[in-house]
Design brief:
Strand content: 35-45%
Structural class: alpha+beta
Shape: globular
Low-confidence stretches: none
Number of strands: 7
Number of helices: 3
Distance between the termini: 47 Å
């Protein structure tokens, strides 16, 4: 059996410093993902809330924050129960912008967990689309 891992890469028309702000700052995170109360910094608790509901949706801990190149945090959502996964972001400067890589590992495995993996896979795709719109509209303005 293989590990349940989601891997995604997108290209963004912005410098890594700008993309970093969209990964860590509450107002920018609210534009494409979920809003924390504080900027994500190494060693702090991670709590992200629904932008309309205000409900706690994601929790964990920021393990590593090396601006503007690498961010890692533990990630749990209610459907995961007690399971703890890890989200790793890598930012690589490229000509004209940044390649952003996501590695979401440690997800629950097995047939019972496959629906959760599909939901997270779809969710990341939707959030990446929102990030592109939010970031590119800001950069282009």
């Amino acid at each position: 059996m293989t590990d349940a891992v989601l891997k995604k890469s997108i290209f963004l028309r912005a410098e890594p410093e700008t993309v970093w702000a969209y990964l860590t700052e509450p107002d920018h995170l609210a534009e494409w993902f979920h809003k924390p109360e504080k900027t994500l910094t190494e060693g702090q608790k991670l709590e992200m809330f629904g932008t309309t509901s205000g409900d706690l949706l994601i929790w964990g801990e920021v393990r590593v924050a090396k601006p503007p190149r690498y961010l890692e945090y533990t990630f749990t959502v209610k459907p995961m129960g007690d399971a703890i996964s890890t989200v790793k972001w890598t930012l690589e400067p490229v000509a004209g912008g940044t390649r952003l890589d996501l590695l979401h590992e440690g997800l629950p495995q097995g047939a019972d967990a496959f629906g959760l993996i599909l939901a997270l896979d779809k969710g990341w795709d939707e959030h990446f689309g929102k990030m592109r719109v939010a970031l590119h509209e800001t950069v282009d303005a």
